[in-house]
Amino acid sequence: MTTTETLRRRVQLWFGPQHPGITGNMSVQAWLEGDTLTQGITHVGYLHRAFEKLMERRKFIQSFPIVCRICVPEPDTNEYLLAAALEELSGLDREVPEKALWIRTLVLEMSRLAAMLQVLGGHVGSMGLGVVPNWTYTLRDYVLDRFEELTGARVYHMYTVFGGVRRDLPEGFAERMETEVLAKIEAKLPVIDNAIFDSSVFRKRAIGVGVVPEEWADEMGISGPVVRAMGIPRDTRKDFPYLKYPELDFEVVTTTGSDIYARAWIRRQEIAQSVDLIRQILRRMPTEGPYCAKLPNMLTWTIPPGQTYVRAEASRGEMGYYVVTDGSDKMRRVHVRGPSYVHGVSLLERLIPGTNIADLSPLMVSLQTCPPEIER
Amino acid sequence: MQFDSIEEILDFAIGKEMEAHDMYMDIAGKVKRPGLEKTFLELAQMELGHKARLEQVKAGDLSGFAAGEVQNLKISDHLVDVKPHPNMDYQEALLFAMKAEQRAHDLYVDLARATSDPGLRELFKGLAKEELKHKLFFETEYDDVILEGN
Amino acid sequence: MKTIIDDIRARFSVEWEHEQRADLAQIGVAPGTVVPLLTWMKLHTPFVQLNHLSVVDWLEDGEFQLTYLLTDPHGHRSLMVCTRIPREEATMESVHELWPQAVTYEQEINEMFGIHFPGSPRQGVPFILEGWDDLPPMRRDFDTVAYMHAHHPSRPGREHVDPRVYVGKVFGERGYLHDDD
Amino acid sequence: MSLKNTLAPFSAWMQAFSKPFTVPDEPGVRPGAPRYRGWHINDRETCIGCGTCAEICQNVAIDMVPVDEPTKGDSGLRPKVDYGRCCWCALCVDVCPSGSLAMSNEYVWVDHDGDAFRYTPGVDEKPWDGAELGWRKDEGFDIVDHERVPMGHLDPEERIHTWAEVVVGYTEEEARREAARCVECGLCVAACPAHMHIPDYIAAIRDGDDVRALNVIYDNNSMPEMCGKVCTRRCESVCSIGVNGDPLAIRWLKRYVTERFDDLKSVLDVDVERVGEGRKIAVIGGGPSGITVAYYLAIRGFEVTIHEALPQLGGATFFGIPKYRFPMPSLEKQIKLLEDAGVKIVTNHRVEGDELRRMLEENDAVFIGTGLMKPYRLGAEGEDLPGVVYALDLLRDKNIGREVEVGERVVVVGGGNVAIDAARVSRRLGAEVTIAYRRRIVDMPADDEEIEDAEAEGVEIIPQAIPLRVERTDDGRLDFVWGPAEMVPSDRGRPRPKLIEGVEHHMVVDRVIVAIGQSADHSWMPPDIAEKVADAKGWITVDHNGMTGHRGIFAGGDLVNDTADAISAIADGLRAVEGIQRFLGILPEREETEPEIPVITVR
Amino acid sequence: MEKRKLPVLPVAAPPEGSRPHAPLGEGCFLGEEELPKAPALKEALATIKNWFRAQSLWVMAYGTGCGAIELRPLTTARFDMERFGMAMRPTPRQSNVLIVSGYLATKSLKRVIRAYEQMPSPKWIVGLGSCTINGGMYWDSYNTINRLDLYLPVDVYIAGCMPRPEALIEGFKYLMERVKKGEANGWHHYLENLDWYKANQKKLITDWNLPDYNW
To answer: E8 falls in which pLDDT band (50, 70, 90)?
Structure first.
């Protein structure tokens, strides 16, 4: 064996789970030639809590506190989807009050906003630029402050339940939302633009890296910013309208390039879009009326047999819940299909060959892989 | 009736209590209803207690007298008096006792009204109040037991 | 939705159908029909996307239900294809050649339910669990609480008094139709 | 890549001049939001220990621990929270039926000892006790159902012309829906004098298993159909759902189940040893307590004979309760069950003279459940005038089928259920009816629903009206004279009415119906036995076995308890069922020890 | 100095002859035997050493569970953990605080043990959230442990699900206090009762393929 050949020997590298560049607690088993990855296998299971198993032995209402923990940055999508699925199967969906629908839309959009702020910072953070995440995390914290005020908790809100939501909007919520959150975000966005999208470092590292071919989009079920960065206007909020989204005025943001830069750009645009949507929601939301339907006794409630699949647009892409009921007071089966299930395993593994090792972390952030969603 | 001294009045009152005691003892020996005999014996015992209290007053200790207002529920006022008879029941026994206390009370009120001596009037009033207190005891019992549903 | 189900009915035998929502229909087919049906759907209909592959354990019936969710990404509608296979030594034909991401689904199902997909790569390779030596945990006959008690001790000192039982005991609740023992 | 791109990131330096926003490191700078979900607080007084919080906690974070003495309506248990389990979902707060549990907005708790994170809110003192802010129950969000499934009633206009049952009864769907409201806390079991297994049969109804429900019901109540219609339902008064809403319609649910089955014997699964073979028991008085004793002893092989003075068993539930509340077929079904169990029934037989003595010799034990049959007198002038009648007599005459006539205008004196029954019966007999009651309407011992029904039927209620006398008018009618009363406070019990002198109201009526109460009559007993058994008021004192001061004589029902309702009579009967067996040496004597505590689940 | 409680366990008996933990400065590990012998001086040195240690808690950046989401805001200017002398370090070799941010799946536990053992002493573990205390939300899951202190020595627990950044700061301040007083000595306990900890760990992790101590 020559020296050169020895040098070009494949090196196996475990990337994670304890690694500052990994998204969450997961790992990628990668093989390297030089500093180029030739193959990668995603390993998950470090966060497996068996949600689906646990929900099979919890009553319907008891599943709400547990379901929001499936995705840490964005718990509300999970709460909404479980509620939507069970409402559909029980027939309660016709009784959800108007105001609850608006509040749910608001909460979903707020959680999208919070998650996208987090991941936009992560984009640059994974490239070593620490200052932008500082800003975006603080901005996200402002959203969490409003969540705390609205739902009583910062991170795990446990706010959406079937029939509606658990509490009304507090007095003066809209004004505080505007001055404490939305205005601050809008003031910061140009600064962030400067620091990211105009930065030669970011452009060099992001443009043309991690390109997802357009033909994978349909068959793999790629969704969210990843698919919109290919120029395909695919968005669950438009395609499978739910809640009050059909009544809101927004366009699906798309761009081309399908690389890390394009995905970051989509997220930055969607932050602005979310800000706008939250303003619209707060302006149009009815001030009077109930915020939750009259519920039966949750300790004994049963739902007739049935199965359904509901979906909503999370910041990462399409989130789906497959729920099967059997007429008892518990779910027969609930299966959570998060976008990361495809993005973080199949897509990531297909993208890894040929990627530079330094780009793996930015790539994972741009796919927004969220391990708890993969293994649940 | 004319009384000249406080002692005289008190002796009269003590005599009244003794009369009541004897009467209850008498009825107790006659009633048939199970347990009612015991009730009348208790009533007689109560009168002895009243007597003892008056003797205390006579000895100069006025603290035995009821202080403040005594409630008059006026239950017995519009009820028909009963004569003691062997087949009395509890309701009749209570009625009888209430009426007896009522009569004693009325007597002292009348005496108080009749006398011009302010000291004596006060004493009569005090005695009337005592009797009222005894009446209240029976009226409360009547209100609780007989009129429970009314 | 009706047209596509009619098209399917013309080619395959459908056991049952149900329209859950305007954009979601469900059909039930025999296990052997699944792969031909899905192949045909992917090649000849707009339902080209495999969104989801899931398993429901019908322990009482001794069957697993496999649910394939196909989506028409441009027509914005979905079709749920359900099939039931026996629980004993459950085996199902793989669809990984139609959709590469199905490998992950099949790997997870293999691990969590013990259903074998012959030919699918990574069968038997641990995905989520590590060093697992019990029943596949998502099976309904696997008792997670018993496992927890056996493997994950809790902090001692918790004592709960059930009000229903306590009240009955304190106040002397008794029955007279049956002898106690 | 232009120069602009190279310089752009440096714009971040501009932020160095922006206002700092670091949260200062001082305590209390950022309190939790007004509805923040922090550590639990609990109002120990308001809490009823129903354990619903523990029930809904999916993390099994809440233990119920004994803190106070258990009373009716309060188990004395209080929730203890394990913060090694809690997830702050606040479902416990939202479900809390009494509204006592809440959360403060405090959120900091650090310790090096992992065992420290447990406490009983409201009992163990904590810095956040009495916190003003935090997660509270909100009116608009309820995860238990506080609204009762409404019960159909005949229209008041219609029902005063008929003796048909006023209450329609639940349909199957309604019953299941109502049963689903139950949180199964069991507080009702304490309040029920017979300690019926209420949550268990409600659960059976909810699950659609009516046979199981019926068996659970008959387990300690042999007259449940009567209870299902006319019970005073102490259970509902302590129902945890009823603290802030409508209590479970426990009575109506029992009614629903019991009405579903006609042949009770074939449905009931009796599984007891016939330990009483060859033993004879005499039951005097065929009321609820007597029937209870007879049934549960008969299924154990005892030879039981019931002696009843009236032509029909049932006691007060037969002669006292009007048929629009408790129709005859329901009673007959109960009696049929007794007959099926082998009870010998002797009606129209009043025990008198030395008969009791003879019975004591012939039987192993005698049970007395003769009830309160002698009405209290009004005591006012004119009581003996014709036209002044007693409610008990009126109701009895009506129920045993005699011709009853009340005229056009009736005043009923009293405020109990008997008074209301008399009023409603008079209404059906075509009279205008007024109830004169000495106290306020809230003080009326009658059931609230009964009062409402009576008012709906056009019965006028005059509260704080003291009857003064009854006079005969010139045209042969009666002049009922009453005076108004003021309520004066009392040092014990409810406020008492006091006549306001000088005011008299007159009411010309055809009947004055006296319904102020009733007492026992023991003239049928030999005096020496009566002396040992009863006291002056006519009440009988019994020991824990239900036995009176006379060996072998057991007693129960209105004679014994001071609540004077059917379910208490049934409870007395059950006590005597055990007591008689202990007396006869069939069951071991109860050990007088503290009730051993309880049914602890370690978790 | 407070004695550390060894949890009573069904898992494995406490090691025979396990020494009560040695107070700091009584010569145990890492060159402490070289300390001067005069007790007063030894005491003073220990105090100074503890004070320094408390001022530089370096946290390993390993988000073992969902609690990690509230760690990130601590590094921003809003909560600014650096003012307390704390910083995030990317590798165990540079850190002395391991934050177990919530539940630990069995698979994670193995990695966490490895990471912990790689950290240089003195080192401390902060249990974040209720799940480290008694299982929390996932108490009945087959895949998460209920009690962290069976497997690793925990110095400070912060209750909450999840605890807010302010609660974390309070927790860290409490840890600093305990370090200053010389009371936070879980790392001693771990080494002294290594057999017991290892028995617990190996009982749970059946496919144990690590060296017994990962230096």
So the answer is: very low
Token look-up 């490895």 returns E114
ipTM: 0.84
Sort D573 into a burial class: Cβ within 10 Å, 0-12 / 13-18 / 19+: buried
Considering only CA atoms, which of A105, A352, A71, A65 is closest in space to residue A245?
A: A105
Q: D598 and chain C: CB distance < 8 Å anywhere?
A: yes
Token readout for D71 is: 């009373």
The span from the CA of D105 to the CA of A364, in Å, is: 38
Query: Looking at the 3D structure of chain E, how many domains does it have?
Result: 1
DSSP 3-state assignment of E212? coil
Give ∠ CA A137-A142-A146 in degrees, rounded to 5. Answer: 140
CA atoms within 13 A on the CB side of A279: 16
Angstrom distance (rounded) from CA D155 to CA D167: 10
Domain assignment present for residue E200? The answer is yes
Matching residue, tokens 């939750």? A292
Q: How confident is the model at residue B66 (pLDDT cuts 50, 70, 90)?
A: low
Q: Is C39:C84 a contact under the CB 8 Å cutoff? A: no
Domain spanning A60-334 has what CATH number? 1.10.645.10
CATH of C2-156, one of 3.30.460.80, 3.90.330.10, 3.40.50.150, 2.40.160.20: 3.30.460.80
Work out the percent of chain E whose per-residue pLDDT is above 70.
82
- Cβ <8 Å between B90 and D519: yes
D25 contacts chain E (CB < 8 A): yes
Structure tokens at E15: 């090691």
Q: What are phi and psi of D521, to 5 degrees?
A: -125, 115
Between chain D and chain B, are at least 3 CB pairs below 8 A?
A: yes
Residue E144 domain boundaries: 59-204
Give the span between the Cα atoms of D459 and D160, in whole angstroms: 11
Could you say which of C71, C130, C137 has the minimum Cβ distance to residue A221?
Answer: C71
Residue E14 lies in a domain: no
A-to-E residue pairs, Cβ atoms closer than 8 angstroms:
88
* Interchain CB contact of D91 with A (< 8 Å): yes
Residue E38 lies inside a defined structural domain of this protein: no
For residue E191, give the CATH number of its domain.
Answer: 3.40.50.12280
Nearest CA in chain E to D59: E137
Residues A152 and A172: their CA atoms lie apart, in Å, by 16
How far apart CA D231 and CA D228 sit, in angstroms, is: 6
pLDDT at residue number D602? 62
Domains and CATH numbers, chain B: 6-145 (1.20.1260.10)
Give the bridge partners for E127, in sequence order: E100, E157
Is E124 among the domain residues? yes
Taking the Cβ of residue D15 and every Cβ of chain A, the question of whether any pair is shorter than 8 Å is answered with yes
Q: Which residue has the tokens 């030739």?
A: A38
Q: Which residues of chain D have pLDDT under 50?
A: none
> E34 pLDDT band (50/70/90 cuts)?
low
- Asked if C153 and E144 come within 8 Å (Cβ–Cβ), the reply is no
Residues of chain D positioned with their CB less than 8 A from the CB of E149: 114
State the nearest Cα–Cα gap between A191 and chain C, in angstroms: 37
CB atoms A18 and E115 under 8 Å? yes
Whether the per-residue pLDDT at B87 is higher than 90: the answer is no
Instruction: Output the pTM of the full model.
Output: 0.86
**So where are chain C's domains?**
2-156
Nearest CA in chain E to A122: E72
C160 touches chain E (CB under 8 A): no
The backbone torsions φ and ψ at residue A324, rounded to the nearest 5 degrees and listed phi first, read -120, 130
Domains and CATH numbers, chain D: 28-143 (3.30.70.3270), 161-267 (1.10.1060.10), 280-373+522-583 (3.50.50.60), 374-519 (3.50.50.60)
Contacts of D54 in chain C (CB under 8 A): 160
CB-based contact, D183 to chain A, within 8 Å: yes
